[in-house]
Each structure stands twice: as C-alpha cells, then as structure tokens.
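WARN retry 2 of 3 for item q-0093 after timeout on previous attempt; input resubmitted unchanged.
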Amino acid sequence: MSRKVDYKKDYKSLYLPKASPEVLEVPIIPFFTIEGSGDPNEAGFAQATEALYSLSYAVKMSYKSDDVPEGYYEYTVFPLEGIWDLVDYSKPSTDKSNLKYKLMIRQPDFLTEEGFERFLAQTKKKKSNPLLDEVRFEHVEDGMSCQMMHVGSYDDEPASFARMEEFCAENGWIRKSKLHREIYISDPRKTVPEKRKTVLRFGVEK
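OK item q-0093 returned
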C-alpha cells in the first residue's frame, strides 16, 4: 500500500489556508453530499452529518473487505464541508431556521459510482439512519474562489466575510453569489468556540 494521503499535508492549499484572504482555483472534487434546511443545532443536521460520515468510513475501511476497490490507497477521512444559503432572502442571515445547506465530505479519487452504490447498500444494512437514502455521490467544481481561515466562533464569521469581500474589491474580483462554503477543520465537540478553525470560501469572477 502506498503512502497515506493526509489532506492537511497533500491538499494544504485547500484545507489550511492563511488567516488572510486569497484567491485560488479549486478543481473538480468527488463528494458525498446531502441537502437540508433549518437550524444546524437541531437533530436533522446531526442526522445528515452522521449519514455522510457512516458512508465515508465505509469507504475508508474497505481495505479490510474481500472486495477492495481498485486503486485503493490509505488516507485520512476528509473534513465535513457545507455550502450555505438562505431559504428566504427577505429574512436576516442570523435567523438559523431560515438556513439552507448542502453538506458534503470529500472522497478519494478511486471511488466510482458503482462503488458508491455498493457502500451505500452495505451501510444501510448496518445503520438505520433514514437520511442515507438522500446521500448522493457527485463531483463539484468551485472554480475561482476567495478563501481564508477563520479562527473563532461560527457566529463571528461575518467579520471574516467582510474582510474577504474587501480584499476582492481591492483586487478586481466580484463575489458571484450569496452562497458560501465552510470547511470544518476543528471538531466543535472538542474545540472551544474561540479556537475553532473553519475555512471560508465563496466563488468569484472578474
């Protein structure tokens, strides 16, 4: 088996950016995804996250099975990510019940659609999570994006987004939409809010 792939080392530019804005091109990436809406502090969000992790670990541990995926290599499971939007734009972004999200976890490039179907069937036999039926395997391309590492509470993210928009304005970039991506580098269950690391990103164009 080849060297273990670690996203913090092998994909550092995407997962460990500096705490200051920058623009880069994000390539097309395979993900398990699931969509939902509402307050992320409620049970539905946790259930969706659990579905993604259950499948992701099924892929990671498949080297122990009798049917190892072709091209398998050892790797660290990628962090949870979310693309965030509002259900109703007339309501403030601080209203968490008005949030709409697409959660996702990156997958290794050896995973195929056929493999996804196999791991989904296997996981559904072991887990009773009804949201497993809503998980999709798709390739997502962010393209040109502005990003930075936000250190602190999720509630303090607006200040970082303001810095990013100011940086874009000064460098001839325009934010493409209200959508934004968050990549959760820190586990919120183990990290106090003021020390949490979250990659913030949104699409840009000239």
